[in-house]
Amino acid sequence: MPLRAPFPKTVFVLTGAGVSAESGLGPFRDRGGMWARFDPMRLATPEAFAADPGTVLDFYNLRRRGAVAAAPNPAHVALAQAEAALAERGGRLFLCTQNVDDLHERAGSRAVVHMHGELLKGRCTACAGTFPCPGDLDVADACPLCSAVGTSRPDVVWFGEMPHHLDAIQAALSAADLFVAIGTSGAVYPAAGYVRLAQARNIPTCELNAEPSDNANAFDEARYGPASETVPAFLATLTS
Ligand code: APR
Question: Which of 71, 104, 117, 168 is the right S-S partner for 156, CB 3.0 to 4.6 Å?
């Protein structure tokens, strides 16, 4: 199926940890990935936070410091440029990321939907308010909104919790005329199922990844290699 004719008006882009890998933020399921070194059930669930908030906060403090120290790579920059180029033509690039870093924003993307939350935001389990969180969180911290102590957690989506912005994501998927997945293993739902929804609408689908993902067979086209090379090359064909 021709991927690029006619010129896409709405491109739905789903990114995962692989888009930030070359910025030094390691993926989760590669060999030696984060979940090979840390037990997600002890660090990335509401139950883990309730049982041992200090350990969970320390884990996310480490990840936040890494994200703050990282820099966007050419894949992030190309996505920001494609967003602007499509907008100039009356089109739209809907960027849905599973990542909790802010590298897309720091590369210049203006509309980023973080379906798994954001490391640089905190959330209070007492008042449910969210607040900027550029630095470490500690169990002794008081919520900046309601002053409750010990209730501040990272505003990230843990296993067993509902991802964010699902209605907006569904609406964008229903309006898209091209679906591109970048740097994701296709292992975690609902994000892993989005390519099937795109297929069901008969729109072209493309995977840009280091290697075939778990749902590689669902894509019309695939380009394998480092995102810093495949993403700029692919997006250039859309906006040239
Ligand atoms: N360029 C392109 N792709 C890459 C690169 C790279 N430089 N490095 C790794 N990849 C690919 C890997 O081959 C893998 O398929 O990126 C993918 C990363 O997969 P995961 O580590 O599973 O990350 P992701 O798909 O984002 O995980 C989804 O799982 O643990 C949860 O909340 C977490 O958002 C995360 C979700």
Answer: 117
